[in-house]
Design brief:
The chain is an alpha/beta fold and about 260 residues long. It is about 30% helix and about 30% strand. The strands form three sheets. It has a seven-stranded mixed sheet. The chain has a four-stranded mixed sheet with strand order 6-5-7-10, with helices on one face.
């Protein structure tokens, strides 16, 4: 069994919404795919960070006030992170931390944070913060799927520049998504995903997690052992959440009539 390396960016700084579950899901499926998963914490105490050494890089949500220090630390590794994304390797970013990798972050107090610019979007901090479910259609690694999770609406994301290889990650069935004004959810660039969806998403949607691990193995020249396991419990949970969300959608539609 070869080592499957997962880089977890700033887990002690970017720790909102219990996204540790995504790391556990990646580790579980990497093991089922025939590898030995190892999670490496990458933070202010890390002496040297080489993105190319990892199979998956994961970044969870954090408070926007912590972003300048994280951006400053990551800036010397920007070109290596860009290469990681351009090679089709999976960088998975959730929640507010999508803004870290965009071009600019506009804050409520009028200040501005310059992002890493791995994706071209501009993020705007919301004055009012609400939470709700997210349910959307997407395609990952040529596999069509429907993703269930939730979202804390701390930022809005502006239009996606598809001329730069970026496109919406998903099309909303229910939820707020990028800005609450259209059906766009997140951004995908190559096999890297920048999504508003929490949950944690990779626990709630194992079909997506399997494909991320598959892509990571293929792009790093590793064998992928087919994953076959009983997902009856996961499917039951998914169906229950789906039914609840669609009931809310129906009620909202009736209220607007």
């Amino acid at each position: 069994m070869s080592e499957f390396k997962i880089a977890w960016l700033f887990p002690d700084t970017l720790f909102l919404h219990g996204e540790r579950g995504n790391i556990l899901a990646l580790s579980r499926f990497a093991k089922m795919a025939g590898h030995t998963p190892t999670v490496y914490k990458v933070d202010f105490n890390t002496k040297e960070f080489d993105p190319d050494a990892f199979d998956v890089i994961f970044c969870a949500p954090g408070e926007i006030s912590s972003f300048p220090a994280v951006i400053e630390w990551l800036t010397p590794y920007k070109e290596k992170l860009e290469a990681f994304v351009d090679q089709g390797r999976p960088l998975i970013v959730t929640g507010t931390s999508v803004a870290l990798f965009g071009s600019r972050i506009l804050r409520q107090d009028g200040s501005e944070i310059v992002g890493l610019n791995l994706i071209s979007v501009i993020s705007k901090e919301n004055e009012d913060v609400y939470g709700d479910d997210n349910f959307f259609k997407c395609v990952y690694n040529e596999q069509q799927m429907k993703i269930i999770g939730n979202q804390i609406q701390m930022i809005d994301i502006d239009e996606i520049d598809e001329t730069k290889g970026e496109r919406p990650f998903g099309e909303l069935i229910y939820g707020y998504g990028n800005c609450g004004k259209n059906t766009k959810e997140g951004i995908i660039k190559g096999n890297s995903v920048f999504t508003n969806t929490l949950g944690p998403m990779l626990v709630c949607n194992p079909m997506l997690t399997i494909e991320i691990v598959r892509v990571a193995c293929e792009k790093h020249g590793k064998d992928f052992q087919d994953i076959d396991f009983d997902m009856s419990l996961e499917n039951q949970s998914y169906d229950t959440k789906k039914e609840f969300i669609l009931t809310k959608e129906s009620e909202l539609t009736n209220c607007k009539r």
